[in-house]
Design goal:
Layout lengths: L3 E2 L2 H9 L7 E9 L5 H13 L7 E5 L17 H6 L7 E5 L9 E3 L6 H9 L10 E7 L5 E9 L5 H9 L28 H25 L17 E9 H11 L3 H19 L10 E7 L13 E7 L7 H18 L17 H13 L1 H4 L2 E5 L8 E2 L2 E9 L8 E8 L2 E9 L6 H19 L2
Parallel strand pairs: 5-6, 9-11, 11-14
Antiparallel strand pairs: 1-4, 2-7, 2-13, 3-4, 6-7, 8-15, 9-10, 12-13, 14-15
Helix pairs in contact: 1-10, 7-8, 7-12, 8-9, 8-12
Length: 460
């Protein structure tokens, strides 16, 4: 496979990474086991199947030489901003097939454990090997002999949530799936453009510039009157804890049907209420606390074939942790999300990821560490939703019963929340700095309590 230059956002994720803040996303899948040796069998299957998945053979290689010459008049074929970046394209990175790819370097079988989340937290601390394809699958047999777990780790430069799902699903037992819709072919371009395209290019440049100014101004406004909690910020310890909570999707729909809005509105409001309970229980207090939540928005169409690379924007909203009444919290979340949707994912403070397209590769290389440290100024907690298929998955014939998505932890943050819906259940995956949040299980418990409170408030 030919080398594929990293898109600007992928390059940003590649360069933001540090030893204390590895930039991998993950999922902890828990399977029912039909025999005590099911975990070992699953590890063998993952290793043998990985060799046949092209996306898992791709490593990321830094590039420090000028890129090959382009056809003449590149500025006439694409926006001028893109053309101006070409002279500074060195310092980037590209995906390429690893000629020495060995699945055994990526699939690891661990000793039996009684606590999947405890082991997953320790494994989340370790950065992926950057000289090999940046992914790992850790198989964790259960001490009970009737379950095992697999922790999949993918570097964010290799895959976003949807792409990671595609790669992991390729390792599961074969299933008859609908074929993805092909991408429409781009019309062939001649060496010289149609002059009728020039006005559209100019309008596109002006629109990009206006959008960048709008995002920058929105970010500046979002830093005013910040009312977060010290419990959501910390000095990095390099340690990680994970925890999970599983809800019945019918309960979420019951709340949604009673008060309106979307399932996502309810899931975000549950986070706000759980944070309130957790802060009060640990003595940090919730009065006046309205942390800024970054809610990533995928710009992919789920069933459409797509190239590698991240396509993300986001919404930024204040979580009404300080609101005591649960239905009022949900109403505030719904209003904030409606306002974000009306503006669209291409504008506003949550769309900072789109600015990566305006930075040359060398800028990402030199500025990556600084950008990572600035995350704390931009938002206080990540609340992301990761799509999962509606059908059941199996590995070696053993069914996947639960799957907890795990998001990267940004520098200066103590907590990240990811949510997935699978087989009629909602799975909350919590990742925290291990030193800053020793009571992460208490927060997981607060998720259950908040849903119960919302149901009670919705009942006549």
């Amino acid at each position: 496979m030919n080398a594929d230059p990293l898109a600007p956002l992928d390059l940003a994720f590649w360069n933001i990474e540090s030893a204390d803040h590895p930039m991998h996303l993950a999922a902890l899948g828990v399977f029912s086991a039909r025999s005590p040796t099911a975990g070992a069998h699953a590890a063998d299957l993952l290793a043998s199947r990985a060799a046949a998945v092209p996306g898992l053979r791709m490593r990321i290689r830094d590039v420090w030489q000028p890129l090959p010459a382009r056809p003449p008049f590149p500025a006439l074929h694409r926006p001028v901003a893109s053309a101006l970046r070409r002279p500074l394209a060195f310092g980037g990175a590209e995906r390429e097939t690893d000629p020495g790819f060995d699945p055994q370097n990526h699939v690891r079988l661990h000793a039996p454990t009684a606590d999947f989340h405890s082991v997953a937290g320790r494994l989340m601390e370790r950065p992926l090997e950057r000289t090999r394809p940046p992914w790992e699958a850790h198989v964790l047999p259960g001490e009970d002999g009737v379950s095992f777990a697999v922790l999949f780790k993918f570097h964010h430069a290799l895959a976003d949530g949807l792409r990671a799902l595609t790669l992991a699903a390729a390792l599961m037992d074969p299933m008859d799936l609908p074929a993805p819709r092909p991408r429409p072919a781009e019309p062939a371009r001649g060496l010289l453009p149609d002059v009728r395209e020039v006005p559209a290019l100019v309008r596109g440049l002006l629109s990009d510039a206006g959008r960048a100014l709008d995002i920058g101004a929105a970010v500046a406004r979002s830093t005013l009157d910040v009312r977060s909690s010290p419990a959501l910020a910390c000095e990095p310890s390099g340690t990680r804890r994970t925890a999970g909570a599983v809800l019945d999707l019918d309960d979420v729909h019951r709340i949604r049907k009673s008060v309106g809005g979307t399932v996502n509105d309810v899931l975000i409001a549950v986070v706000a209420g759980a944070l309130r309970r957790w802060l009060d229980a640990r003595g940090a207090g919730s009065e006046g606390v309205t942390p800024r939540a970054l809610v990533p928005v995928s710009r992919r169409r789920p069933r459409t074939a797509h190239p590698q690379g991240n396509r993300l924007s986001g919404y930024l909203l204040r979580l009404p942790v300080d609101e005591a009444e649960p239905l009022a919290r949900l109403a505030l979340v719904r209003t904030a999300m409606d306002r974000n949707k009306d503006a669209g994912p291409n504008r506003g403070a949550g769309a900072v990821a789109l600015l990566a397209d305006h930075v040359p590769p060398l800028g990402h290389r030199l500025g990556g560490p600084l950008v990572g440290q600035a995350a704390r100024l931009w938002f206080d907690v990540l609340v992301t939703s990761v799509p999962l298929p509606g059908f059941g998955l199996r590995l070696g014939g053993d069914p996947l019963g639960a799957v907890f998505p795990l998001a990267p932890l940004a520098p200066g943050h103590s907590l990240a929340v990811a949510v997935s819906t699978y087989r009629g259940r909602v799975h909350y995956g919590l990742v925290a700095d291990g030193a800053a949040v020793p009571d992460l299980d208490r927060l997981a418990g607060a998720v259950f309590e908040e849903v119960a409170t919302l149901i009670s408030a919705c009942d006549p």
